[in-house]
Records
---
Amino acid sequence: MHKESNITFKGINKLAIPAIITGIAEPLLSITDTAIIGNVETHSIESLAAVGIAGSFISALIWILAQTRSAISATVAKYLGANILDYITSLPAQIISLNLLLSVLIYGVSVFFANEIFELYNAKGLVLNYSVSYFKIRALGFPLTLFVFSVFGVFRGLQNTYWPMVISIIGVILNIILDVILVYGVDGLIAPMHVEGAAWASVIAQVVMAILAFVLMLKKTPFNFKFSYPFNKEISNILSISFNLIIRAISLNIALFMANSYATKYGDTYIAAQTIAFQIWLFFAFFIDGYASVGNIVSGKLLGEKNYKKMWLLSIKLSRYSIVVAVILSVFCSIFYLEIGRLFTKDQQVLQLFGTIFWIVLIMQPINAVAFVFDGIFKGLAEAVILRNLLLFATFLGFIPALLIGDYFDLKLTAIWIAFTVWMLMRSGILIFKFRKKYLFKNT
């Protein structure tokens, strides 16, 4: 018999805190790259801009490719809740194999067209050269990252966020150490590798994380990596969920692409300031996403149990906890407003531009918190069609019009962050409405 879902404060945070630590690992890697590269002695602004552009594209690809993680998590959790895990023993290995094949294909295509891709971001000259150099190395980690995310999806479905946390902590610590060594060099031993050093640090960390994920899945789950045929009956459902989530991720990344493209168009100092603000926004997002992960993990299991009353209570509790976390983060950052910017760069023009937009990043955090929580719940319920349609709607009828209007009035970076605020307001408001409409009546 499986354990009943625990949605008390203690039960939620037992899952959420490891999930938060796991979630902030990826943006922390990017923030580390940004901070270290932004403080190099030569061409720091161009380097910061390049890492921001390339990092944004890498994040876009990872988010698009990693959507099967949520599908795996939701499926495993549902079968765990119904106490019939034996029905899907072959599923993880099959999905992981398909993911690896896809990631290798995407790697080959994206590296071949790297120059053309970053020219679309309006990168040119030294910024373009640095972007391509950084990307071609970092892209080696695509298959590794997707493999790790798939294994994390299995652990999440099993209501286990501890081992993903352990893997992430090791990866982050290793990456930070390697960043310092490879970017700045070691006198007499290692020559400074600049932007390429930051990329190699990430790849090496990803190799170690993939090895740990491989070992821990074999030792700590009832699944293995033996590929078997025929395909499990759930494979078509997972691919369908993943396909809808991929369309969602593409529309999401259209918004991110346009933000970085417009910032780059305004000039190197603008994309540098945008890079800093966006990395902090991402850090907040993944931090708050720890509670969204609980929604993803537990709602699938509650669906398997057909326990709709607990599902409704879960949404209320997760919203409250994530809003509190968002407010605490915002207040902390408002106290150290400009000092945070100085961690990334000493350039006064960049810092001035950063200061004009950072307040928008901070005030939108409670809105983000609600959006991310319900996003996680809907992923756990495998409501991929709703999530797909919402992102298409919010991006093309919210973000893009707001950005174009702001750009017309020459608001520049302010226009970008007003557009992000409109985007998140639509995402949070519509998901709350949909959840109440579809699941509240089942509560009675």
Note: Residues 139 and 444 are 50 Å apart (CA to CA).
---
Amino acid sequence: MSKPFDVEIDNSIAHIRFNRPEKRNSMNEDFWNLFPKEVEELDDSGEIRALIVSSTGPHFSSGIDLNMFNNDVVEDESENEPGRKAGYFRSIRLE
């Protein structure tokens, strides 16, 4: 799995740069799983005084990558029940 961002540390300043410009730096499942861990590790290390978050390409981020909802997470029965499907997505939490 390749990270959807790059991390550099220079002179006690960490720089996280989103690196999916072809997808307008949308935040996919890898992002949601890795980004919080990366920030926590940087914080726990005690090596940095500041954190810069930026991106590559013309867009900072288009937000959540909706393609992560195209898998078989939602059961077929909800296909004709958009309210249940929407309720499911509001209730999930990524670990």
Note: The chain has one domain: 5-91.
---
Amino acid sequence: MDTFAALADPTRRRIVELLGRGERSAGEIVDEFDVSAPAISQHLKALRDAGLVQVRADAQRRIYAVDPAGLAEIDAWLESVRRFWSRSLDALERELRKPPRRKKR
């Protein structure tokens, strides 16, 4: 699953936000939502497949954390968009600062 497609779902975005504050077990994540554990498990799988979260085993528990590599991919995309708009807005500003042209009669 594509990174942005994974984040299109509000539940998945909220999971990433929770994990942005620190690691959590699958059970702790489930406790934050009013949906079933299997539904959260599917969301976590989609986030893992998209490279946004990683999981490690701790005895019988699964501990989830944000995957920095997945966030780096988003940062790179955002930077390319920022560069485009920055250049475009700079060009617009230059045009707007030019003195008005006089109409020929």
Note: The chain is about 60% helix and 15% strand.
